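We both want to read discrete structure tokens more fluently, so let's practise on a single case. Would you write everything just below, so we can both look at the same thing?
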Amino acid sequence: MAERADHTTLAALLREQAARDPSAPYLTIGRAATITRGEILAAATDLAGRLQAIGVGRGDTVATYMDTRREVVECWFASALLGAVFMPLNTALRGTFLAHQLRTSRPQVVFSDSSLWPHLLAAVAAEDDMIAISVDRVPAPDSGFRARLRPMDPADLERVDPVPVEADVAGRWNEPALVLFTSGTTGASKAVVLSHNYVAHMAEVYAS
């Protein structure tokens, strides 16, 4: 396969696809309405601007700890637009398994279903410094959570004025885009860092 151009990142690919046909269907989850390319780009761009405003930037890690929903995709592309690294956490993770992945990756922000907050709280060490954001508009509990994590309710994030995201912050095709963890069958799970180029290439393989 020919070497990719320097500008070919996930952010660039999304922008190119949305510019080509913004009304084209992009994502359907269950019986929910289909989301278009233009809508995904707009939502990801808005989220990227708000994350940048609260201090998330290039090279930082953004994690999700939630079931299948459109916010996972929005977080992934928002991370790509910022040059940040996206890390989806398996919602089956509990206790030391979840703690290991959090402490290995050190995410600046974790988006979580509020139903999973007790597991998240139990896995976070007192010295960890993460912002936790609910994706289903349930405020963080007062007991324990605020002492161990920095909760930010969705309404608080929505009140943040987004900082315009410049195209050049998205990085290069050979820079990290995604962190996945191995199954850990022979020991603790290992973090596998995947580049923009790798993710784009695998998408082409599956689509062909």
The longest strand covers residues 176-181.
